[in-house]
Specification:
The protein has 155 residues and is mainly alpha-helical. The chain has one domain. The protein is built from 5 helices and no strands. Helix 1 packs antiparallel against helix 2, helix 1 runs antiparallel to helix 4 and helix 2 runs antiparallel to helix 3. The protein starts with a helix and ends with a helix.
Length: 155
Amino acid sequence: MHSFALKIINRFTMYNIIQHTHSGIMWLVIIMLIISVFGSLIKLLKKQETISSAWYKVYSYTKWLIYFQFILGAVLFFISPKIHFGEGFMKNSELRFYGMEHPLMMLIAVGLIALGLFMAKKKATAMQKNRTVFIYYAISLVLIATMIPWKTVLS
């Protein structure tokens, strides 16, 4: 019985650490995505034909930060007390959000970011690369911003 109680305490301690890390990194992800989207938009509007390795690093760091965020979210998916796949799962909006809607949309956003940077590398000109990064990263930013549980984050 004693070891079972310790397992429960350790699970919730690990959950709290990962959940707070996930929430904190969320702000870095949003900031990096905003910088990436506006940076690519400005380069697109200025019609810059030069390829900047500094901006490519920003896009790449954004991608890797989002990968790390997704890994934390995947761990939370399996240890969170907010996720129960039982009877009435789809009828309960909170369970449905944390168990299906949030993870699925974040997976799509991560995929779009990875695909956007990959597709940008394949483009011939800097204009095409900037347009590709802008489109994919902007869509991902919108998906991520709409799927953040703002009531929980801001409370």
